[in-house]
Amino acid sequence: MKKITYVLSLIFISYFNFSEETQPVACDPMIPMTESILSAVLKHRDSAFNTCLSCQGPSCSLKSWDDSKTLAVCKRLFCTPSFVSPGFETPADTPSGKSSFTYSYNISKEGSLVNIEVLKAEGAFKKRDAKKFLKARTRKTKFEPVIYKNEPYEIVNLTSNMVLNTRWEDRD
């Protein structure tokens, strides 16, 4: 009986230790929230902090959820930008053509998009081109800083992807 209790205890403990492992969560840093949504986000963030985030010191990752509604709420609260510039200056040496790329990034304690790393690039863009383009595109993107119990936190381990066509054509 003691062996069964011991084994069940190990399984129970390992479930909770491994269930909090965070996988990269896909967020879209190109679509900002409205002012009314922002005020609701700020109102509800503290109550969802421990539900949505897994933190190690000042660095937090969004928890992965099988429940799509919970995941959507967590994404809205912690990885939706409050501002995205409607225009940006495209780098002069941007390749022309269709491209798609997947990238990872973090949100700094100050609310900036940082540490962009291109994981995969296909089409006209190489990884270096994609990173340069993303830096130009997200230079002014802002997130509401995550402050919990008067401490600032960064959000790490986020991913996104982009599909675009930079073919410049004259149309009559």
Q: Could you please describe the fold and organization of this structure?
A:
- 22% of the residues are buried.
- Residues 1-21 have low confidence and may be disordered.
- The protein has one domain.
- Strands 1, 2, 3, 4, 5, 6 and 7 form a 7-stranded mixed beta sheet that branches.
- Helices cover 34% and strands 28% of the residues.
- The chain is an alpha/beta fold.
- The termini are far apart.
The chain-level structural class is alpha/beta
Strand content: 25-35%
> What's the helix-strand series?
HEHEEHEEHEE
> Number of domains in the coordinates?
1
Helix content: 25-40%
Number of strands: 7
* Count of helical stretches: 4
Q: What global shape is seen?
A: elongated
Give the topology, please.
Layout: H1 2-19, E1 25-26, H2 35-52, E2 53-56, E3 59-62, H3 68-78, E4 98-107, E5 113-123, H4 127-138, E6 146-148, E7 151-165
Helix pairs in contact: 2-3
Keywords:
alpha/beta; disordered N terminus; 172 residues; 28% strand
In summary, what is this structure?
The chain has helices spanning 2-19, 35-52, 68-78, 127-138, and strands at 25-26, 53-56, 59-62, 98-107, 113-123, 146-148, 151-165. With 172 residues, it is an alpha/beta fold. It has one domain (19-165).
